[in-house]
Design brief:
Length: about 375
């Protein structure tokens, strides 16, 4: 089945063309096209994503990216194409159109949904139109093909379930216990800031540009992670209710106080020590859950999964526990549309439908 997928939940306009096959125990994906147009530079001066700028940019980018996928007759987009109707081109056999319906910024979600409905009606009326959950996309991104040199996923030969899933992005920090690809229980989540948000805020305190995650990683590489002993939030919180919950605002505040009290702080040391504290907490809770629930694998997902130190630490911990470790290929950690196609395919296999309207607070 060929899936055209659209993602506009935040500040990346993304579209992909993915060929999906296999059953629910062994879904396989071939990514034919994967285009991500980042608006980061436009939002950077504001220190975060401005919803109305995101909306405007998505509206501008969507038709351009559709053109890049080369599924419509290229003549229809040529400069002299006025009055000429775009028509499906040679690659145009599309079985499903998938679009993110949430969670995300509502005005940003509208643009992708409206565009999906439009092209569905106009060019691919026989295709299924599937509304997908952005977080499910992240969760399933480890199923997308890995690039050479990265660990190869063999779902058939490598034991997966039960699995502990750590989904870490700019808006979410969630720990899951998965019985299968489609059955899970939320073990815990953040009580305040998401971990990606903490990276972004600490970067801002250090005068590093937005988005802060990659900048912190870069600065941290030059620093000493043991230089400052920032708190490991909630590692010792033994209360059963919050056993697997996270909290990152305290850590963020300690960085703030440290910088207030040390006017000549070494940026690299602060970044390295903050990064280590955040990762220690994530890895500690994930490992604890993996042990308690006798997990066969640990799955890492979401934008923060791009963090090299988190990947390495969690991979090493998994090896120590004797469980398999899965993380997305580097190009599929941060927002993209290939993961939305993966989520849509699994939804189709499960015959699950979802309302096709913006749901800003949709959860896992
Ligand atoms: O999944 P994503 O692209 O968007 C959301 O759904 O939120 O995640 C973006 C988040 C941002 O907070 C960004 O700073 C963080 O992922 N991030 C990183 C790294 N790359 C992106 N955090 C730490 N280290 C990185 N290398
Ligand atoms: Zn995301």
């Amino acid at each position: 089945m060929k899936i055209l997928s659209i993602e506009t939940s935040c500040d990346e306009t993304a579209m992909a063309l993915v060929e999906a096959s296999g059953g629910i125990k062994d879904p396989r994906f071939k990514v034919l096209k994967n285009v991500v147009s980042s608006q980061v530079a436009l939002h950077a001066p504001f220190g975060g994503v401005v919803p109305n700028i995101a909306k405007r940019e998505h509206l501008k980018n969507l038709p351009v990216i559709l053109n890049e996928l080369e599924i419509l007759d290229p003549l229809s987009s040529a400069p002299n194409a006025i009055g000429r109707r775009a028509a499906p081109g040679p690659l145009s056999k599309i079985d499903a159109i998938a679009v993110t319906v949430g969670p995300g910024l509502e005005p940003a979600l509208w643009t992708g949904i409206g565009f999906a409905k439009e092209i569905h009606q106009k060019y691919f009326p026989k295709a299924k139109l599937i509304g997908t959950n952005h977080m499910e996309g992240h969760l399933y991104s480890f199923l997308l093909p890995q690039k050479t040199g990265e660990p190869k996923l063999k779902t058939k030969s490598q034991k997966l379930f039960p699995a502990v899933g750590l989904v870490v992005s700019g808006g979410h920090t969630i720990l899951l216990l998965l019985k299968s690809l489609t059955e899970w229980k939320k073990l815990g989540e953040t009580r305040d800031d998401a971990v990606g948000e903490a990276f972004d805020k600490v970067a801002r305190m250090l005068g590093l540009p937005y988005p802060g995650g990659p900048e912190i990683q870069k600065a941290a590489a030059q620093g000493n992670p043991e230089a400052i002993n920032f708190p490991r939030p909630m590692i010792h919180d033994a209360s059963p209710a919050g056993e697997y919950d996270f909290s990152f605002s305290g850590l963020k505040t300690s960085v703030l106080y440290y910088l207030r009290d040390h006017k000549r702080a070494n940026v690299a040391d602060v970044a390295a020590s903050f990064q280590k504290a955040a990762i220690d907490t994530l890895v500690y809770k994930t490992a604890k859950a993996a042990k308690q629930y006798k997990a066969k694998s640990i799955i890492l997902a979401g934008g923060v999964a791009a963090n090299a130190s988190l990947r390495e630490t969690l991979a090493a911990k998994s090896a120590e526990l004797g469980v398999n470790f899965f993380a997305p290929s580097m190009e599929f950690n941060t927002d993209n549309a290939a993961m939305i196609a993966a989520a849509a395919y699994i939804q189709i296999l499960k015959k699950k439908s979802r309302r096709i309207s913006a749901q800003a607070n949709l959860s896992l």
